[in-house]
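> call design_seq(struct)
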């Protein structure tokens, strides 16, 4: 699954950075979530941005899914808040 999205920050006790999965792709993920979720709607995925690949888990937010961006990806690829990034997701079955 490939899409583009804007990086946003959630400022909690520690800042976290995310990209929101578009509606159409989120609907596709929702359709298969019962096969792969390990609880709370979390979906294990492999994410690739630029030349950097990582594993993480999507989670539902406001009717869509969000991709957490690990600091290793952000630093390696030079990604900041407000940047638009191309994301490739592979669901871990």
């Amino acid at each position: 699954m490939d899409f583009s999205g804007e990086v946003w920050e959630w400022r909690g006790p520690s800042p976290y950075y995310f990209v929101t999965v578009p509606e159409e792709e989120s609907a596709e993920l929702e359709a298969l979530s019962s096969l792969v979720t390990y609880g709370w709607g979390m979906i294990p995925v492999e994410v690739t941005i630029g030349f950097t690949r990582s594993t993480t888990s999507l989670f539902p937010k406001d009717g869509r899914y969000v991709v957490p961006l690990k600091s290793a990806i952000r630093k390696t690829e030079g990604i900041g808040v407000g940047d638009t990034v191309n994301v490739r997701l592979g669901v871990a079955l």
